[in-house]
Amino acid sequence: MIGKKRKRRYTKSFSSYRCLGLRFYFLFRTVDKENSSNSESAPIKTVKLAQTASDLYFSCKIDKVSEVEIVDAVQTINYSIDNLITNILAGVEEFKLSYCKLSPSHKNRNRRNILQNLKPDFKLDIPRLQSLLIDSPSPLSDDMRDYIVDLILHDLVSSLIHKKFFKGGHFFGVGSETHQEYLESMFSKLATGGKGFLEKGFFWIISVNNFLLRRKLGSCRNSALAFYGCRSCIPDE
Amino acid sequence: MAVEAVFQMNDGIDSQLYDELISHLKRTLKLVYPGLPRRQSKKVKPECKSIYDSIVHGEENSLWDVIRQARKISFMIQQVVSCRMVVSISSSTPDEDVIGTLSFGLQKILGPDSTISLKKPKLVTNAVLRSHLLQL
User: Fold this and answer.
1) Which stretches of chain A are DSSP H helices?
2) pLDDT tens digits, residue range B14-45?
3) What values do phi and psi take at B39, rounded to 5?
4) Average pLDDT over residues A9-18
5) Which of B21, B24, B62 lies closest to A80 in CB terms?
6) Nearest to A97 among B33, B64, B72 (CB)
7) Residue B20 shares a structural domain with residue B49
């Protein structure tokens, strides 16, 4: 993994917000056209992030995606995460952050330590692997460390992204964990009450979400909900 | 105005994840490569406090790219109305033998007990790690 820095593939920026099936999406590209029109070998030098919504380029094509496209998107993000971690590890190598060099006797002793930890009844996990890296009585070999570090970084990035964007039943990627848990709990209670109850409860969920958003965004609340087509649901103050 | 409001909401979540990723990556590198001098090389950027900062902040654009791809997928997987898509990792697949996740998977849920795996997550199990480490 270490050594070769792969070329970054593209620079798209996406932004979306969803809640209970009412969602928003806008796609924007802010890559300098001159750079993008250059030959493939030329590196992209300037990638501007959109600062305001007026910088965005709208597209609703994503509403019509197929399963194949979603699978491709998952493959792409997996590749990008690989790329990211490869670059970080390449940076480690660039700064010559090498491990302690081991003598052959140390290597053998270390190998015995590892093998003891790898008995069939001994369950390894990420914290154990981290402690194995940090607290090992003798330093691990470079190959072992590289493999374990690679695994730890992959797991770290995947877990954080999953927690933020994909964890949850109906509400995810919409705010703090407390916010999501509260909405999930309320939705499940409403859903068990039947269809009619759910339709009535939908107003309550919008109201609760509205309250939470108001705390966060202040005066932007009405505008945001109106954009979802829910202006009629907003109670008068 | 409404577009600005939604943009702010998205931006807040993305920024929060970005900050978490940066801090966790730096902490992990610091743990794995401890005891290094604060400024080992002239390659460290002046605005960076340490080598770890310099390494992680060098990948800012890649991190943003990954975050926005994740947001795109999280939006896409709700577009299929007839079923539900789930991006899966080790923590979402209860298995005591799994240590960590190397890549995301994708599941299609057709009903309470019916699931199709469109793409399996790449997981590292105790058995795989043992065999790998024994080969080293």
Assistant:
1) 33-36, 67-94, 104-117, 126-135, 142-161, 177-192, 195-217, 221-227
2) 888 899 999 888 888 877 776 555 455 556 66
3) -125, 95
4) 36
5) B62
6) B33
7) yes
- On whether residue B82 sits in a domain, the answer given is no
Best residue in A1, A12, A15 to probe B by mutation, most B CBs within 10 Å?
A15
- Residue A174, pLDDT score: 60
Looking at the structure, do residues B10 and B54 belong to the same domain, yes or no? yes
Whether residues B69 and B91 fall in one domain: no
| Model confidence pLDDT, tens digit, residues A96-146 | 655 544 455 555 555 555 555 555 555 666 666 766 666 655 556 667 778
What span, in angstroms and rounded, lies between the C-alpha atoms of A64 and A47?
A: 28
Give the DSSP H or E segment for A145: helix A142-161
Are B8 and B44 in a shared domain? Answer: yes
User: Residues of A numbered 174-233 whose beta carbons fall under 8 angstroms of chain B's beta carbons: which are they?
Assistant: 174-175, 213, 216-217, 220-221, 223-224, 226-227
B81 found inside a domain: no
Per-residue pLDDT tens for A143-192? Answer: 777 888 888 899 889 888 888 887 766 666 566 667 667 777 776 777 66
> So what's the ipTM on this one?
0.84
Domain of B32?
1-76
Burial of A127 (0-12, 13-18, 19+ CB in 10 A): exposed
Number of domains in chain B: 2
Do B64 and B94 reside in the same domain of the chain?
no
- B65/chain A closest Cα distance in angstroms: 7
Residues B36 and B102 in one domain: no
